[in-house]
Amino acid sequence: MQKRTLSFWEIWNMSFGFLGIQLGFALQNANASRILQIFGADVHELSWFWLVAPITGLVIQPIIGYYSDRTWTRLGRRRPFFLAGALMAAAGLILMPNADLFIAILPSLWIGAGMLFVMDASFNIAMEPFRALVADNLPSDQRTLGFSIQTVLIGIGAVVGSWLPYVLANWFNISNRTVAGEVPLNLLLSFVIGAAILVISILITIFTTKEYSPEELEKMDDQPSANEVEAEKKSSLLDIFTDFKNMPFTMRQLALVQFFSWFGLFGMWVFSTPAIAHHVYGLPLSDNSSETYQDAGDWVGVLFGVYNAVSAVFAFFLPVIALKLGRKSTHMFSLVLGGLGLLSIYIAPNEYWLLLSMVGVGIGWASILAMPYAILAGSIPPRKMGVYMGIFNFFIVIPQIINAIIGGPMVKYLYGGDPIYALVTSGVAFLIAAVLCVRIHDVDEPVVAKKV
Q: Where are the transmembrane segments (predicted)?
């Protein structure tokens, strides 16, 4: 028995929930630092507050992957996990910008940081099963298409999430002005709308997508032997450490590429708002409540939306480009363009030139979301797809943890307090990741790419 070839719209519906997840994730990425600064965080402390995000992923994703490999309910194998994650993330989205309502319990800064933790834990619960679902349901020759469609939906969700505060303020005249210590109304409404879209999009995937039953999976051509199945039944959660030790060679090669890619991304997400407000808008680093600062924060959301829009469009072309150049070469060139985009922020003469910088970042982001997973899926055992997708997340969260620990002190002591150099560091990290792509052995690369 072989996996059925799915139509475009079946693959689209299967990944549609990722649109909502990424919308919420984009709201967090573009605005969490801004909200934390409004609640009183200093610029060099921001990366420490963001530390909760990668640590949560480091712990949760492999565990969720392990149990989603072994779960079968009325909702299926993967769907119960991203439904639970979506509901929790929606709660965090609503509560984070409203943290000042709970000052009788704790300072609003700590409530906000706590809600950041809830959101990150929830996004991690939801994301990994979505990655595994694509690998579960698609035959090998459709996986690049599957992850590319997922990247398109991620891009659409991220554009909507990134642009919401700007659109509400400039198109619907909802105020983005505020006083010290309070989140502006346009930002509050953006997070509420994001929570609603997140839940609705997840429900669309749940009601339109079927999963292969355990009995069907056992009959697949790419499934393990009877001895391997019996050994798998005797496994435990602690076997994650054994699986980590025995990870495929291709996965080890991808690990270094992922490390530098996500080190760069984390620096961009954390420091873009203060860097652009200071370096491009000319504001003092102590300013976190003026009208110009709020305008700079809204513009960062627009910029993040642009790179995600570029990502969504470029993702449509990734399967064709990968067939011509090969998947690892496609990823390498995309990372080079992403790195140059980040480096160009330093020399941008005004905020509008940053739109061009985001084109390069968007191309790199599209490839980061698709190519490593397309390469990885062909190198890992099918019955351990979930756990290895979770373990692969180590190489996403570990660089973020390292950046979270050292990023703030680097800005304060090495860069003289100027966060623009954190973005320059991110650009250099992308270029290093591109060079490391040369070493990758893509064991499941389509034959067409090899002949070109």
A: 48-68, 80-96, 102-123, 144-168, 188-209, 254-279, 299-323, 330-348, 354-375, 387-408, 420-441
